[in-house]
Design a protein that fits this description.
alpha+beta; 8 strands; 216 residues; 8-stranded antiparallel sheet
């Protein structure tokens, strides 16, 4: 009898958690729809397929169970912009971890940026990464920038040419802020490593545009 009661309690807890999660997602969907209407953009729901469309970017190649859960998109002719919630999972079993972030993707057809990414340095994990051959493009004449960020890219010479002293100084001035970006050809992806309330979409878009302006 006690075992049956315990099973029923567990089932009730799971059901409550699932209902709460569904309710929260419904609220977030409604918020995305309001933002889309306010900004004159189009709402995109689950299954929008960012991971397929932008699969050439590193973020969309990480982990498994990749999916877009909602967001907005639009195209002004000069620039296409997409802001959406994206999630993926790394590991399995006890090491399983789900990563969730709101990404802002900008496409400008005249851009031709070398494939590269920039993120804040995480001292211990990045130190261990370098021991095992992980890439971090440093500048001997710019220890402030090099100690603050991990810069990676397929063509190191092209990436070094892109990150001029003036551009590195602009990024160094942002030291301490948690942002990540990657670029490739005409596409630029920006996020802050977390899920952002849809109501803050305008601010996230502005951050991404300002970062792209530094590079372009």
């Amino acid at each position: 009898m006690e075992g049956l009661v315990m099973v029923l309690v567990i089932v009730a807890i799971i059901g409550t958690v699932a209902a709460w999660g569904y309710s929260q997602q419904e609220k977030r969907t409604a918020a995305w729809q309001r933002v889309a209407a306010d900004l004159g953009l189009v709402y995109v729901g689950p299954g929008a397929g960012l991971e397929s469309r932008f699969g050439h970017l590193r973020l969309f190649q990480q982990g498994h169970s990749r999916r877009t859960t909602g967001g907005i998109t639009g195209d002004s002719g000069d620039m296409e912009i997409t802001v959406a919630d994206y999630r993926y999972t790394t590991g399995h079993g006890r090491t399983r971890h789900t990563h969730v972030q709101t990404v802002c993707i900008l496409r400008r057809r005249w851009l031709d940026l070398p494939a590269c990414s920039l993120r804040p340095q995480r001292r211990l994990s990045d130190f261990l990464g370098r021991l095992f051959g992980g890439q971090d493009i440093d500048f001997a004449d710019d220890p402030e920038f090099s100690s603050a960020y991990v810069l990676q890219g397929e063509n190191e010479d092209a990436v070094r040419a892109l990150f001029t002293p003036e551009r590195r100084a602009r990024f160094a001035a942002q030291r301490g802020k948690n942002f990540h970006f990657e670029a490739q050809a005409d596409t630029f992806l920006f996020h802050t490593g977390r899920r952002v309330p849809p109501e803050q979409t305008r601010e996230l878009m502005q951050q991404a545009i300002e970062m792209l302006r530094v590079l372009a």
